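**Paired protein data**
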Amino acid sequence: MALVGIILFSLGFYDSGTRSLWVLAVGEVLMLAGLAQIKFRGYIKMAMNTLFVVGSSIILIIVDLIEQSLVADAYVLGLIVFTLWLRILLSEYNNEFSCLRCGRCI
């Protein structure tokens, strides 16, 4: 869904017309909710992962509408990649902690 939205926006088929900082804040909240995915399991975890992707696409679209600068877009993409890396590190830490706590393999 996020990929389709980004492609449609890039091709000029989608312009929400909103350049509000409130929409940017909603995207940031959705990304932060996606970081909390390590505390959940099952369908809720999948939904939280989806919120992360949708939030990052909202942020990219709104920053592009507000700034209209390749430098700003590159910066936002860098922040999204950094946040994704942070999410991977948090997940690895949580998995290692769960494994050590269980102790069956050791």
Residues 70-102 form the longest helix (33 residues). The chain is about 80% helix and 0% strand. The CA atoms of residues 19 and 66 lie 6 Å apart. The radius of gyration is 17 Å.
